[in-house]
Amino acid sequence: MADKPTMTTSAGAPVSDNQNSVTAGERGPVLLQDYQLIEKLAHQNRERIPERVVHAKGWGAHGVLKITGDISKYTIAKALQPGAETPMLARFSTVAGEAGAADAERDVRGFALKFYTEDGNWDLVGNNTPVFFVRDALKFPDFIHTQKRHPRTNLRSPTAMWDFWSLSPESLHQVTILMSDRGLPVAPMYMNGYGSHTYSLWNDKGERFWVKFHFKTMQGHKHYTNAEAEEVVGKTRESYQEALFGTIERGEFPKWKVQVQIMPEADAEKTEYNPFDLTKVWPHADYPPIDIGVMELNRNPDNYFTEIENAAFSPSNIVPGISYSPDKMLQARIFSYADAHRYRLGTHYETIPVNQPKCPVHHYHRDGEMNTFGGIKTGNPDAFYEPNSFGGPVESPSVKEPPLRISGDADRYNHRIGNDDYGQPRALFNLFDEGEKNRLFSNIAAAMGGVPGEIIERQLAHFDKVHPDYGNGVRKALKEAHGYEANAVPVTGKTPQHAAE
Ligand code: NDP
Ligand code: HEM
Question: What is its EC number (predicted)?
């Protein structure tokens, strides 16, 4: 006993008995004065924080970004200079499932990275896909509603998903990736990550370049078929956690080759596609990927809650030399994440150790929930406003980014006009071999079970526009899976909410 520390209350007083509550008599009721009992129950009631509204189920680890290439002519970012080594945190996730969802489910995977640079935290909050389902943030809450549970049945609704997708042709590119082999990776190590959005880099001459970030798995791509995944989920719901934690624990550190595509600023006016449209990639032939380094994950968190659940990633976190682009989706995300963190974690969420920058922090934010940094972050108690005469921190014009050139009238521009939603999905479809195409068709047919015929027909018309083989392949798979005949209404049975109507 002597070598064990004495248990205390959270106020530091020694606890005499952690087995028996205080009762009136041996069989009697519990006394309110048993504060330690009340404290334990009250703490238990507060152990959960709100789960992320999307990407609730996740797996994460610490690591390092090592830069070996030289892109110093494009950016002053210290973390991107040749030889730089920057500690970082990664969190991978599925999008739609709740915190307890099974890991091996078909879904897009989040690929969120926080780099603790000398100039503050730089976050790249991407996915394992280079594109997204929508290109205007006004549609993001609607899209997410179709992925989450139906308000009445409390079940996922394939009808809602395909209704939305078939009415939003910009989703075709991402839907094709989601339903292809890469829509169900075996574990986080076996998938690529993409910054997805166009960001910008700027250099010491004040020049801006558009940039896309890619993280290519060095473990090789590995995927499950639907049937394999069902078997895995039948055995373990935590296959990703087991794989990621296990590989790092064994010292087999997963790595990703880091690449950038760079576009000169003026090219954005010239490309056939809008380079700020999140439903499009930049073809490699036009903008070849440049190798710049390697990202390695090499340390498991000691505590999942404090280091992964509490992690706050935000596309708003940029550092000198790296900036945003006009991408409408990115612009909305710059607002949304910090807002989510204030709600989910609290006002001063950046004081949680995993979110703290590993460089000096000086700001004039003050009191409020979670102010654990002691007074103010200016270094002088009299310097609590700015400007001041007490040596408080001041701005640094040396890190001012070059002006962002924009033009045009403020208006609501119809993003479905003049945008080719079929060309890039076609380029992807043409990359697939016969086996991949057949699995794409059968995955789509499986996901369409119970969807009304008019919605299926609307979606098939989009597949036809990508490639006649695409539409026809899905038609054949629908017949095999559900006995569906073209234009017949509906497929097998009805989705729960339709059955209820
Ligand atoms: P490329 O042939 O030069 O590049 C193909 C890219 O597609 C590679 O990054 C490759 O990733 C990826 N890829 C290969 N097979 C698959 C697959 N089965 N599922 C998903 N991605 C795959 O062609 P383009 O640059 O002209 O692009 C053609 C299409 O490839 C695009 O329309 C897009 O759908 C897809 N793609 C393009 C990317 C880009 O940034 N240009 C990025 C990712 C996908 P890897 O090297 O890891 O195999
Ligand atoms: C998580 C909003 C689009 C990737 C989140 C969260 C919100 C959100 C509120 C929860 C954050 C938290 O509680 O910590 C949005 C909005 C979008 C959008 C409003 C569109 C306008 C995207 C896109 C990507 C993406 C396009 C990828 C390219 C992620 C990832 C996470 C996440 C990876 C989980 C981060 C983590 O691991 O903590 N999103 N999102 N999101 N989002 Fe988005």
Answer: 1.11.1.6
CA distance 165 to 462: 10
Angle of helix 158-166 relative to helix 434-447, nearest 10 degrees, comes to 120
Q: Is 431 in the pocket of ligand 1 (CB under 6 A)?
A: yes
pLDDT in tens, 262-271: 999 999 999 9
Is domain 58-355 annotated with CATH 3.30.1490.190? no
Determine the pLDDT at residue 378.
83
Contacts of 481 (CB under 8 A, 6+ apart): 442, 445, 446, 449
Rounded to 5°, the CA angle 337-297-98 comes to 45
Nearest CA to ligand 2 atom 16: 333
- As given in the structure block, the two tokens for residue 394 are 């001041």
Is any atom of ligand 1 closer than 6 Å to the C-beta of 238? no
The finding on whether 177 has its CB within 6 A of some atom of ligand 1 is yes
| 134 conformational bin, left if phi > 0, alpha if psi -120 to 50, beta if neither | beta
Q: How far is CA 34 from its chain centroid? A: 44
60 forms beta bridges with 91
Bridge-based pairing of strands 85-94 and 58-67 is antiparallel
**Is the Cβ atom of 200 under 6 angstroms away from ligand 1?**
no
The percent of the chain in helix, strand and coil, each rounded to the nearest 5, is 35, 15, 50
427 lines ligand 1 (CB under 6 A): yes
pLDDT in tens, 107-148: 999 999 999 999 999 999 999 999 999 999 999 999 999 999
Q: How far is the CA of 177 from the centre of ligand 2 (A)?
A: 18
Best mutation site among 284, 424, 429, 437 for ligand 1 pocket (most ligand atoms within 8 Å of CB): 284
Domain boundaries, the chain: 19-48, 58-355, 363-392, 423-500
Q: What are phi and psi of 298, to 5 degrees?
A: -140, 10
Q: How far is the CA of 112 from the centre of ligand 2 (A)?
A: 9
Mean pLDDT (the chain, rounded): 95
**Could you tell me the pLDDT band of residue 1, with boundaries at 50, 70 and 90?**
low
- Which spans in 399-452 are helix H? 423-431, 434-447
Measured distance CA(351)–CA(447) in Å, rounded: 43
Of all protein residues, the one whose alpha carbon is nearest to atom 15 of ligand 2 is 333
Q: Are 212 and 194 in contact (CB under 8 A)?
A: yes
Which pLDDT score is estimated for 380? 87
pLDDT at 67 over 90: yes
Atom of ligand 2 at shortest range from CA of 194: 28
Q: Which residue owns the Cα nearest ligand 1 atom 26? A: 283
Predicted TM-score (pTM) of the model is: 0.96
Contact 460, 117 (CB under 8 A): no
Least confident among 64-78, 373-387, 438-452: 373-387
Give the model's pLDDT for residue 169: 98
